[in-house]
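WARN  no MSA supplied for this record, continuing single-sequence
INFO  ligand: flavin-adenine dinucleotide
INFO  echoing inputs
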Amino acid sequence: MYDAVVVGGGPAGSYAAYKLAGMGHDVIVLDKKEKLGEPVCCTGIISKECVDSFAIDNSVILNQVSNIKLFSSTGNLIRFSRQNTQACIVDRGALDKMLAERAQNEGAKYVLNSPVSDMKIENNGVKVKINRQEEELIVEARVVVVAAGFGARLISGLGLGKINDFIMGAQATVETVGIDETEVYFSQERAPGFFAWLVPISPATALVGLALHSSTSFYMRKLLASLLEEGKIASDKIKPCYRAIPLSPLSRTYGQRLVVVGDSAGQVKPTTGGGVYFGLLCADIAASNLHRALESGDLSAKSLSGYEREWKKLIGRELKICYYARKFYERLSDKQIDRIFNIIKSRDLEEVLFKDNDLPFDWHGEIILKLLGYKMLSGAIKAMKIPFRIRRD
Ligand SMILES: Cc1cc2nc3c(=O)[nH]c(=O)nc-3n(C[C@H](O)[C@H](O)[C@H](O)COP(=O)(O)OP(=O)(O)OC[C@H]3O[C@@H](n4cnc5c(N)ncnc54)[C@H](O)[C@@H]3O)c2cc1C
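INFO  complex generated
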């Protein structure tokens, strides 16, 4: 029997496996893919803070970001510019492989082509069922880490509740014409309720994407066509990838002999849909709690509840503020977005907010609260009378 079985060899699963194996536990990682990191549907933007905290290898970094252009629907532009690298664009496939390699070097065993179809949590262990074509295999372990991405069916029926809100992301790799800075488009016409992006990864290539609650492929085709018309990309005849992104956390992320991490747990920034950094942070917390529980032999839900307490202490408030901000943004019209752009520019808030070297790339809650603290902006938002109500589940 293994100490831990990790379902999913994405960033969150591999990092949990790396930490657990490094602490001397016998770990197996199961992934349904035939090759880790293939295919992936992710822009791979992670902060400098994430790169440094998790010692991400230079070899997987495609590009560095120090300037970002934010556009409203009328073309109103805020340019966020710093001297130093603020974020890195990683090759997501290579990142997954690198993290898996690290876990393997610590002794974790990877078994690919292993779609897990069922999980039984019993008093003396966990039984995880792999369904491979004609073959059915059972892996037994003392604990299970579910890191299978958003919408993992495995956890339904375990009393963990569900993730109540999500969007569908779309992305394509395109040839670009003269684009050397990341561009983000805040336009309800272009990407209703969210935003669209154009992220250069090499002098002639970029990732174009958006995320939406519905009609994603329609808006993605429209986005590609309009970027082509603007002369920013060379062709719009590209097949995008699509993948769902959770916007709110799972009601409960632990149980007897079980923890849930990463997208499966909804540990994603609701402002941007970025989940790599928070997933890694939470996987780290999960591994420390599992280590303590495995050492003590107490694998009860109560013993593992510390995992949820700790990750919520670290990112819970951030997720809440950003979720409210997201819901508020969804109700803005293009005219109102444009007005907010104008206020930010006219009052030099741009300078204060975006050029202050201490502003963190990942932690948006403080920026949001800081923005709302500006009378001019909060007054204008009040005057807009935006119908806004949060459903508290
Ligand atoms: C278009 C788009 C752009 C994005 N851009 C960014 C970005 O720039 N920065 C950022 O931080 N985040 C971004 N994200 C989000 C990011 O991709 C996720 O937050 C991240 O991949 C979550 O990591 P994870 O390890 O939790 O899950 P995943 O990366 O989804 O890994 C889950 C793994 O589990 C495996 N698996 C699933 N089910 C099973 C099963 N039943 N049995 C066995 N294996 C299984 C899968 O094959 C996969 O390898 C983006 C998402 C989208 C859709």
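The CA atoms of residues 97 and 129 lie 24 Å apart.
INFO  checksum written, moving to next record
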